[in-house]
Amino acid sequence: MTNEEKITMLNTYAKAWYSSSQAYYIHEAVFRAQGFGKFADRCKEEGDEELEEAKNCTARIVAIGGKPEIGYIEQPLFDEIKDLLQDWHDGFIEQRGVEELERIASELTDDSITRKLVESFVECEAEHREWVSQHLGIINRIGYENYLIEQLG
């Protein structure tokens, strides 16, 4: 992967993660206002993680001589937890994010720093995908209303 390709890739992910971190913080506020503090806490954690990933992309772009780009990618907003979880799940399937990041990491044979950064993104995204799958499974087993009761607090 050329340096220019790395910069383009990192800028793409940085913009996506800056945008999604904002969406997570909005969802945190929405679900906290509805009384679902546990789920709101998870949204905040995810937002913090996405923001950190975006900042790491930006720092790496600068370190390899690139110019960070400012941008925003439109994000859907939901007022029902199940709809947000389903959107996340569908996004994993449609975008194949983990698989795409794994492919990118495998192409970074000449840049161990960027490769390790991308591999850390793979780990975070895989953990998030597993968490979402678990919670959709819980909803299927105990029902949505019971799940919401578990998210109060």
Question: What's the layout of helices and strands?
Answer:
Layout: H1 3-33, H2 37-63, H3 81-95, H4 97-107, H5 112-142, H6 144-151
Descriptive report:
The protein is mainly α and 153 residues long. It contains 6 helices and no strands. It has helices spanning 3-33, 37-63, 81-95, 97-107, 112-142, 144-151. Helix 1 (3-33) packs antiparallel against helix 2. The chain is elongated. The protein starts with a helix and ends with a helix.
Rg for CA atoms: 17 Å
Shape: elongated
Count of helical segments? 6
Q: Which series of helices and strands comes N to C?
A: HHHHHH
- Give the tally of β-strands: 0
Strand content: under 5%
Main beta-sheet annotation: none
Which segments are poorly predicted (pLDDT under 50) over 5 or more consecutive residues?
none
Mean pLDDT: 93
Secondary structural class: mainly alpha
**Ends apart, CA distance between termini:** 47 Å
Provide the helix percentage: over 70%
Short précis:
The mean pLDDT is 93. Helix content is 80%, strand content 0%.
Give descriptors for this structure:
6 helices; mainly alpha; 153 residues
